[in-house]
Design brief:
With 321 residues, the chain is an alpha/beta fold. The protein is 26% helix and 28% strand. It has helices at 49-57, 127-132, 134-147, 164-175, 189-194, 208-211, 225-231, 252-258, 271-282, 299-306; strands at 8-14, 23-29, 37-47, 68-69, 74-81, 93-96, 110-114, 118-120, 155-158, 179-183, 199-201, 215-220, 234-242, 261-264, 290-295, 314-318. α3 packs across α4 (164-175).
């Protein structure tokens, strides 16, 4: 009697909450695409702060419990399609942020997800570069363009401007015709100028809340005391957009009293947003900075580096050579 062998794949599994050391490379079953889904062979997976926050808690925001495979950013090649898929065929190169905020399992050789959570990979980028883009670039795009409506002549303050979201937000705001102000350590100012920043504040030596005024939009990626202090930089009618979930310190009342808006934006899978980002990349107006690349099996080391808070741009896992 013949025996059917279930396809397997390499993945980084987590079965307990804790530090980077809980991430273990394993051999596990390969998923199969359902109706409306594609199977993607992952070449690169971006590493994001959301990943290590989930790792520490041991649970996803939607309640998905351990064990699980982390990761949302994917760059790879379509390996198969489920019933009803017409957007892609096997062999197509794609990138995306599938299923967010639900588990996508990107720290693995294969993922499955709805076809419309992906777009064609930007021409001219490596898989490492395109794997670094989706979550951070969509966060910046949806915050600045869809939520705040940044347009020519607006003054935009980007916090942590050299970070994963920040360095892309600087470029997206600039591409929209804005005057861009960024906060970052002095060592990163030259990079940020090359990306289009008009003014830079060294947060270690200068108080941005005293130095910056008449801003139309603040992109808040730091949280805590920065929320209330950022309100002081906004002109009446301005908009504070936080990409971090608010807690009881979020200044809703202070914002109302100051005549400005303040709120939280959660990034969503967005095929059209990915296509807009791709256009910026292919036009030379958006460049992704890759801080470091680690093999899939060294996901723990990638997390340890990310948690230092000193990275520039994005960290990426190389999954399939």
């Amino acid at each position: 009697m013949s025996r059917t062998t279930t396809p397997t794949m390499r993945a980084v599994l987590q079965d307990t909450a804790g530090g980077p050391e809980v991430l273990k490379a394993v051999e596990t079953g390969r998923p199969e695409p359902g109706r409306g889904e594609i199977l993607v062979r992952v070449h690169a997976a971006g590493v994001n702060p959301a990943d290590w926050k989930i790792r520490e808690r041991g649970v996803f925001a939607d309640g998905t419990p351990l064990p699980f495979v982390l990761g949302f950013d994917v760059s790879g090649v379509v390996e198969g399609t489920g019933d009803g898929v017409t957007l892609f065929r096997p062999g197509d190169e794609v990138f995306g942020m599938p299923r967010f905020p639900h588990p996508a399992g990107a720290y693995a050789e294969y993922v499955t997800a709805p076809a419309r959570h992906f777009a064609a990979r930007p021409q001219g980028l490596s898989h490492h570069e395109s794997g670094a883009l989706p979550l951070a670039a969509l966060t910046a795009w949806q915050a600045l363009v869809d939520t705040a409506g940044v347009r020519p002549g607006r003054r935009v303050l980007v916090h942590a401007a050299a970070g994963g979201v920040g360095h892309l937000a600087v470029q997206i705001a600039k591409a929209r015709g804005a005057h861009v102000i960024g906060t970052a350590g002095a060592a990163k100012h030259d990079l940020l100028r090359s990306l289009g920043a008009d003014e830079l504040i060294d947060y270690r030596t200068e108080d941005f809340a005293e130095a910056v005024r008449d801003v139309d939009v603040v992109l808040e990626t730091v949280g805590g005391a920065n929320w209330a202090r950022s309100l002081r930089t906004l002109r009446p009618g301005g908009n504070l957009v936080s990409v971090l979930p608010p807690d009881d310190t979020f200044p809703y009342e202070e914002a109302g009293a100051a005549g400005v808006r303040a709120g939280f934006m959660l990034v969503e899978p967005d095929r059209q947003g990915l296509r807009e980002i791709t256009e910026l990349v292919e036009d030379g107006r958006l460049r992704v900075v890759v801080d470091a690349v680690f093999p899939l099996e060294e996901a723990a080391a990638a997390h340890a580096r990310g948690e230092t808070g000193r990275t520039t741009g994005k960290i990426v896992l190389s999954v399939t050579p």
